[in-house]
Amino acid sequence: MLFLKIELLKQHGFNVELPMIKEVIINPDKVDIGYKNRFIAQKIFNAYHVLRIVYEIKNDEIYVITIYPGRRQRYEKN
To answer: What is the pTM (predicted TM-score) of this model?
Structure first.
């Protein structure tokens, strides 16, 4: 499913690759806690967007739930 999301994002002009997803999780600019206590790692993607990765950790494994771009003006407040 993750690869389908990556392809969908590419169709909309967001060229996301697996190494980029790993980088956001390992070295995020910000981490929030979301629904069901899942982590939301965020990193600047371009001048107007951040890339947000929703994931959870179970048994020392990282499971990516979804990825999505967000507008910097919305997610970079404080």
So the answer is: 0.91
